[in-house]
Fold this sequence. Notes:
The protein is an alpha/beta fold. It has 11 helices and 20 strands. The strands form 6 sheets. It has a 7-stranded mixed beta sheet, with no helix packed on it. A 4-stranded parallel beta sheet has the order 12-15-16-17. The protein has a 3-stranded parallel beta sheet with strand order 5-8-9. A hairpin with a 4-residue loop joins strand 1 (5-11) and strand 2. Helix 2 (129-139) packs parallel to helix 3 and helix 5 (210-219) packs across helix 8 (244-267). The radius of gyration is 20 Å and the shape is globular. The protein starts with a strand and ends with a strand. The mean pLDDT is 97. Zinc ion is lined by residues 51, 53, 85, 276, 279.
Amino acid sequence: MADALHVRGVVLPEEEHRDVWIVDGRISTEPINGATTIGEGWLLPGLVDAHCHIGVDAHGPVDREVQEQQATTERDAGVLLARDCGVPSDTRWMDDRADLPRIVRAGQHVARSKRYIRNFGVEVEPEQLVETVAAQARRGDGWVKIVGDWIDRDVGDLAPCWPADVLAAAVQQAHDLGARVTTHVFGEIALPDLLAAGVDCIEHGTGLSDDQISTMAASGTALVPTLINIATFPGIAASASKFPAYAEHMLALHARVDAMVTAAYDAGVPIYAGTDAGGSLPHGLIAQEVQALHKAGLSATDALAAASWGAREWLGHPAALTEGAPADLVVLSEDPRQDLRALADPARVILRGRVVR
Ligand SMILES: [Zn+2]
């Protein structure tokens, strides 16, 4: 079998030193004669960016050429599965491209009128929330994204976007259609209604209290803190001089984010690595987010899980390099558990059994 490949090394998360063969896009644990050895080191199931936006830049939707560049940049960083947390463009065409990462889509952001980044979301009023969530649930791959809070210029600070009863009905509608709901939330005030409505995941979550963290741990509600995006809050505050209360609030949320993540980790909240690339941040930064999660208190192994096997399982994709699993993996030359910087420069990236890096 001329096309068979072979890699060997310490397979994570099992920590087994073994050989892995690759044929017809799948993992084989049985030796394949004549397979070409292409790498050796530490082997991880393909990385996951659990919150990014392929198909948008700071100004709105981008054309296919730019979409392809964004997807390729993620892939070359080892991201072989992306949870797209909302885009105003159609990237379905990528599903036919074996050389581009797999994408789990959340449709287009569902936002309150004039309360989100211009050209990103479907902007509606509360009476249209349920039907809009239903439409986006049908468009996505099992996820819907609701913008839970944003600056209210009349208030001059972050404020919730939706009444509690409408939110609860919208989340119920998504669940009835088999979709999970995630929500963008920076501040404190929107959180009680979002958690009471039964959202499945909190994006950012900088305003989470210890009680809310306990609630999330008990219900299995996930947290994707997007730490390298939160690191931009001081810059957002600096450019918000017209809204001093908002600017001060963003600085305060930024100052406590590592403590919030530590508390969530200690409480057992499922935490996943998302870069939030696509709006203001460039793609390809998953290794930086993993390092930031580690700095915020996750063990190196758990920070890796948050961007690999743990996140894959959460998104319903095979989480281990076992017999018959899709051959989506990265090979690192150094042990990432000893030094997470190893993640930033994969020796090999293999997607659907093909070497792409
Ligand atoms: Zn985002």
